[in-house]
């Protein structure tokens, strides 16, 4: 084969390359020009799924030296098993220069070069050499049995803000990843003065990240920023890692958690609307999404990633949502007839809304230390001493940069909030970013036109504070949602707001 390659290459005066499957099958023959070859998209080729790609490249070169910088870059980015350069003399094979990746950097290099040898005088079979390399990788960073089958992600933040902001945001992203059952293996923060509209990362940084993914056996990059379709492509064209952004991660969490029929419809709609602009006719970035996180539909089904089907599906979902919305309207109307006031709990995710509802009404709805534990609105009755009653509703939590698609598709759920006579804004005072969280929630309330409804700020989790309460908080309602004893003052105020005030309205 080497002889055939070199003689053709010499005759055509062009480089010729082969992409060879680990099984020995030649997957691609690449015809380059005099100085380089261009490796085509490889993502459609199935391989065994080790850390390396299961494909190697061999190409002829008119140069006498071994692999060029570009060769190495291709090998790293595509996780090739090996990259071999075949030098030629008088149309015959001369030496085969083979480079391969290594798990631990030596002399600032992540790869190793084998002693050049004539193709017929190789010391070791390719297969045993590759097996050897893969073994070194798994030994360097073994995967625990429990982690098998889970996605392993590297979190990447490319930001123009301050380091501290980026780090805070990263912590939240890690929490989101945890809520999506993704294991975070590494974090990268890159600060830039300006974000490039097409390339989210520089090439050098991208290579660093690919190498990191090799060492950690990561299969997924999660960006803290919302990515444009061309930014996604700029990463996926050079690597074969899957790429999703924060929005897709949030959508994915919602997809796996939504329980009600309406919730499921809303989520699927939001996911499809988000994916649609990313689809171009022969897009590869998305075909890579199939199956894994970012493409999980409600109830662990798979999203259909096909433009025409998506449009059909969106139209059908819209119809179904309308029908469900009507039912909800009737239900609400019935409630209105009995004229029971409604109190809605709002706040940042994980603030303690569900816990408060449970304590107030002796219920057992799910409350846990996890972002977006609650997705479907829940209502419970609460009795006041004077034989009066209110309905308390718990809803989905808010988060910074809540995707617009998501907000839109949750409109009908959020409509519940419009019915509220009083909002309780639950604030997790033990979170050091509580001030920003308050701002996010209040901005969202304003955006949703809910700022006309009376709203009480309620500072929660004071048991975590050892009496170090900030002064502006001291005068507000400070509670521990787990402890009914701390809620008396709040209940009194609620009663006053709901009953005394409304009675006052009818006085002459
Ligand atoms: N220490 C302490 N922990 C609390 C308090 N209130 C809630 N928590 C905890 O905070 C976590 C989140 O509480 P949830 O009630 O699920 O919060 P949520 O606002 O409903 O959050 P999502 O539904 O996920 O948006 C849980 O682990 C609670 O046990 C409190 O007063 N003190
Ligand atoms: Mg909740």
From TrEMBL:
<keyword id="KW-0963">Cytoplasm</keyword>
<dbReference type="InterPro" id="IPR016496">
    <property type="entry name" value="GTPase_HflX"/>
</dbReference>
<dbReference type="InterPro" id="IPR027417">
    <property type="entry name" value="P-loop_NTPase"/>
</dbReference>
<keyword id="KW-0547">Nucleotide-binding</keyword>
<keyword id="KW-0342">GTP-binding</keyword>
<dbReference type="Pfam" id="PF16360">
    <property type="entry name" value="GTP-bdg_M"/>
</dbReference>
<dbReference type="Pfam" id="PF13167">
    <property type="entry name" value="GTP-bdg_N"/>
</dbReference>
<dbReference type="GO" id="GO:0046872">
    <property type="term" value="F:metal ion binding"/>
</dbReference>
<dbReference type="InterPro" id="IPR032305">
    <property type="entry name" value="GTP-bd_M"/>
</dbReference>
<keyword id="KW-0479">Metal-binding</keyword>
<protein>
    <recommendedName>
        <fullName>GTPase HflX</fullName>
    </recommendedName>
</protein>
<dbReference type="GO" id="GO:0043022">
    <property type="term" value="F:ribosome binding"/>
</dbReference>
<comment type="function">
    <text>GTPase that associates with the 50S ribosomal subunit and may have a role during protein synthesis or ribosome biogenesis.</text>
</comment>
<feature type="domain" description="Hflx-type G">
    <location>
        <begin position="341"/>
        <end position="508"/>
    </location>
</feature>
<dbReference type="Pfam" id="PF01926">
    <property type="entry name" value="MMR_HSR1"/>
</dbReference>
<dbReference type="InterPro" id="IPR006073">
    <property type="entry name" value="GTP-bd"/>
</dbReference>
<dbReference type="GO" id="GO:0003924">
    <property type="term" value="F:GTPase activity"/>
</dbReference>
<dbReference type="GO" id="GO:0005525">
    <property type="term" value="F:GTP binding"/>
</dbReference>
<comment type="subunit">
    <text>Monomer. Associates with the 50S ribosomal subunit.</text>
</comment>
<keyword id="KW-0460">Magnesium</keyword>
<dbReference type="InterPro" id="IPR042108">
    <property type="entry name" value="GTPase_HflX_N_sf"/>
</dbReference>
<dbReference type="GO" id="GO:0005737">
    <property type="term" value="C:cytoplasm"/>
</dbReference>
<comment type="similarity">
    <text>Belongs to the TRAFAC class OBG-HflX-like GTPase superfamily. HflX GTPase family.</text>
</comment>
<dbReference type="InterPro" id="IPR030394">
    <property type="entry name" value="G_HFLX_dom"/>
</dbReference>
<dbReference type="InterPro" id="IPR025121">
    <property type="entry name" value="GTPase_HflX_N"/>
</dbReference>
């Amino acid at each position: 084969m080497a002889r055939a390659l070199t003689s053709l290459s010499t005759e055509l005066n062009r480089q010729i390359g082969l992409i060879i499957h680990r099984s020995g099958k030649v997957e691609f023959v690449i015809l380059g020009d005099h100085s380089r070859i261009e490796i085509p998209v490889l993502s459609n080729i199935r391989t065994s799924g080790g850390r390396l790609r299961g494909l190697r490249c061999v190409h002829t070169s008119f140069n006498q030296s071994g692999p060029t910088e570009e060769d190495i870059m291709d090998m790293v980015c595509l996780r090739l098993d090996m990259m071999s350069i075949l030098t030629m003399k008088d149309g015959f094979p001369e030496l085969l220069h083979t480079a391969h990746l290594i798990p631990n950097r030596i002399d600032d290099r992540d790869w190793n070069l084998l002693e050049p040898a004539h193709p017929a005088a190789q010391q070791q079979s390719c297969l045993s050499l590759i097996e050897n390399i893969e073994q070194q990788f798994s030994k360097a960073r073994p995967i625990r049995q429990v982690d098998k089958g889970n996605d392993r992600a590297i979190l990447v933040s490319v930001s123009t803000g301050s380091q501290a902001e980026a780090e805070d945001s990263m912590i939240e992203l890690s929490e989101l990843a945890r809520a999506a059952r993704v294991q975070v293996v590494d974090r990268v923060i890159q600060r830039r003065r300006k974000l490039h509209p097409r390339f989210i990362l520089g090439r050098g940084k991208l290579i660093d990240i690919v190498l990191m993914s090799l060492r950690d056996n990561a299969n997924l990059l999660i960006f803290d920023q919302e990515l444009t379709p061309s930014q996604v492509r700029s990463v996926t064209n050079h690597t074969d890692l899957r790429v999703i952004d924060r929005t897709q991660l949030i959508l994915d969490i919602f997809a796996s958690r939504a329980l009600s029929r309406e919730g499921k419809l809303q989520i699927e709609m939001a996911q499809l609307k988000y994916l649609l602009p990313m689809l171009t006719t022969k897009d590869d970035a998305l075909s890579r999404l199939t199956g894994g996180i970012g493409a999980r539909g409600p109830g662990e089904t798979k999203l259909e990633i096909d433009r025409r089907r998506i449009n059909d599906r969106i139209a059908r979902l819209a119809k179904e949502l309308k029908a469900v919305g009507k039912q909800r309207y009737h239900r609400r109307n019935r409630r209105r007839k009995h004229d029971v006031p409604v109190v809605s709990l709002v706040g940042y995710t994980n603030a303690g809304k569900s816990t408060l509802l449970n304590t107030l009404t002796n219920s057992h709805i799910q409350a846990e230390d996890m972002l977006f534990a609650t997705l479907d609105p829940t209502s419970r009755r609460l009795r006041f001493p004077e034989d009066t009653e209110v309905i308390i509703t718990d809803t989905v939590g808010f988060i910074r940069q809540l995707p617009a698609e998501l907000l839109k598709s949750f409109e009908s759920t959020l409509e519940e909030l419009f019915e509220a006579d009083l909002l309780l804004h639950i604030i997790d005072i033990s979170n050091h970013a509580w001030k920003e969280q308050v701002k996010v929630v209040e901005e969202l309330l304003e955006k949703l036109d809910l700022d006309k409804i009376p709203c009480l700020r309620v500072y929660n989790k004071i048991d975590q504070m050892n009496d170090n309460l900030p002064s502006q908080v001291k005068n507000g309602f400070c509670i521990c949602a787990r402890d009914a004893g701390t809620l008396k003052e709040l209940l009194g105020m609620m009663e006053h707001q709901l009953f005394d005030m409304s009675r006052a309205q009818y006085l002459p």
